[in-house]
Design brief:
With about 260 residues, the protein is mainly alpha-helical. The protein is built from 8 helices and 6 strands, in the order ααααββββαβααβα. Strands 1-2 form a two-stranded antiparallel sheet. Strands 3-4 form a two-stranded antiparallel sheet. A two-stranded antiparallel sheet has the order 5-6.
Length: about 260
């Protein structure tokens, strides 16, 4: 018989091999450990009053509840209790035999140590489901760093992405390592040297911000209102904004 997860040969009557069984139990125990921080990440401020909530005045507005985390907790709760019923051989419709444990953490720990964890028929399916939930929990508690496009590779023209704190970036196609700030400035140079490159105030502000030059959308529109910056049919020219942005520094350097 083959393991339902990794397809290696297992003992007769086992749906998971020993390595996958240990991995499955480890995922359940890790989820049990993450229950408390997952609840803490909700950051909910609820109004009292049950079905007739009373409007209250607070010094600061209440923190909105994170519905994505709440849905994730509900999904984990339903999966853990369904897994427990499968392990105990309880029919979902026979509620009289369902020894419901209200403590989700205890249910996960009990499932991890259950003697039938590797032998019940759908062990591989539930391992796959629990693994997907565990990945979502990890992303909710420790979200990945936001990466944004910074410019193209100087060799193969592949668009590169980097995080806010990244100093170096490696091209995924040609493997060339480049300084992130150099890539950003090269992209800005391409935009500013071509007077046909134009965009909205928000687009221009975003492009300059990525390259480390700060100019707000409001500043750009103010320059237009004062007659310093022309607005074309397709937006503002990057080169015009760049001249106004570095103009004071050039004046100071001449003096």
């Amino acid at each position: 018989m083959n393991c339902q997860n990794c397809k290696t040969i297992t003992e007769e009557g086992y749906s998971l091999c020993e390595a996958c069984e240990l991995r499955f139990a480890g995922m359940l125990l890790r989820l049990a450990r993450d229950i408390t921080p997952l609840h803490d990440s909700l950051d909910a401020t609820l109004h009292p009053g049950g079905h007739s909530p009373v409007r209250i005045q607070t010094a600061t507005p209440p923190t909105p509840i994170r519905l994505d985390v709440l849905d994730l907790i509900d999904m984990l709760d339903a999966t853990a209790r369904e897994l427990w019923r499968c392990l105990d051989g309880i029919d979902a419709l026979d509620w009289r035999k369902d020894k419901r444990n209200e403590d989700l953490k205890a249910t996960l720990i009990a499932c991890a140590g259950h003697p039938r964890l590797a032998t019940f028929a759908d062990a591989g399916f539930y391992m796959h489901v629990v693994d997907g939930i565990a990945r979502k929990v990890d992303a909710a508690l420790d979200p990945p760093e936001q990466r944004r496009e910074i410019g193209t590779c100087e060799l193969c023209e592949t668009m590169l992405t980097a995080g806010a704190a990244d100093q170096w970036v490696t091209c995924p196609v040609c493997g060339r390592e480049q300084r992130a700030q150099t890539v950003k400035l090269r992209r800005l140079k391409t935009l500013c040297w071509d007077d046909s490159e134009r965009g909205s105030a928000a687009d221009v502000s975003k492009a300059f911000a990525v390259s480390g030059l700060k100019v707000s959308r409001k500043t750009i529109t103010t320059w237009e209102q004062r007659g310093k910056l022309p607005r074309h049919a397709d937006g503002y020219a990057y080169c015009d904004v760049y001249r106004l942005l570095i103009g004071p520094d050039l004046t100071k350097s001449v003096r």
